[in-house]
Queue: 2 jobs
Job 1
Amino acid sequence: MRDFIFFPLAAALASAFVFVAIDPYGERLPSGPVSAGGRDALDVTITGKELNRVIVGDLGGVDIDLISPEGGAPFLRIDRQSTANYEDPRLGPHLVLAEDLEFALESRPIEVIIEARSTGEFPASQFEANYFAKVEGESGWQPFTLTAEFQPYTLTFFTPRRGREEGYDYVGIRPVSPDKHRVMDVRSVQIRAAGDKGAPPVTPSPGPM
């Protein structure tokens, strides 16, 4: 093939490959840590396609899928096998909260309101949620009883002081799976301040405030 044909053709093919890889017309689902992003950092709701920000840690034994029903808003399906016995919420399904939310929510009473339901062939009768700020400052896994219809469930927690360095906070959500596997759906997660900044208890409390 002559050079004056080969080089333009090669350039055209390379451009086509780059265009397909970038796919400027393809849909980009939200991903990465949750940030206020122009919203009120003291009251942020993760819903719809933004639930794609929920990720699974390295332990395995958990599947998550963003379900987009026809004519309805997307929701997240979590399927946990009984072998997934992680305790650290970062090892299972969780949201990562960016530094702006960590700063806004530190040393405050907060509420994490999770709208969820049981579903599927192996519906979960319970789920647990955990707000993790640091190893010595987490709510611990708090249990909630699920129904077949979406209902709001509220985790309350008094967050600890951040410390010297910025970092991430985490919200873990897991179905209780006593055997085989259990499935639940999550339609929204709202994280909001429930009071002013103050001195946290000596031991952060997950109980009512």
Note: Residues 35 and 153 are 22 Å apart (CA to CA).
Job 2
Amino acid sequence: MTQNTLANIRNFILLTIAQVLIFSQIHLFGYATAYVYLIFLLKLPRHTSKNALLLWGFSAGLIVDIFCNTPGINAAAATAMSLARNAFLSMFTHNGLPDDFVPSAKSIKWGGYTVYSLLNLLTFYTILFLLEVFTTGYIIPLLISISSSTLLTMLFVIVTECFSHRK
């Protein structure tokens, strides 16, 4: 296995364990929940195949579903986010990038990375909460949950990026 593959597996395990043991237990004001395992999906290299992205997203979501007793909604939302990820990434990058290009604030600048992350997180949370509620009858609480969870997770994405940016 290559060094990048081992690092991806390590990040996958660490972020999924942190999600299951710590972050899934935290619900701020009954609306906001941070899903930090999504940072792993955001940071996968650009050359990662679509099949691999879908497998990583589904696997991470399924593990969170199993341990948090949610009936497949994380797996569905993470898989959908993985599917849309490269389309969002292509809005901020060009085709001539190296194979080992990893999306970060350093590589695509803070503005591009922030919008890229926000679009992915909005995709994830919109699907997650729509599947959880399965109705649009509660539109105001639904919008509050989507926006507050997106912003809370974005805070963790920015903090993680600041610490990884210092290396």
Note: The mean pLDDT is 89.
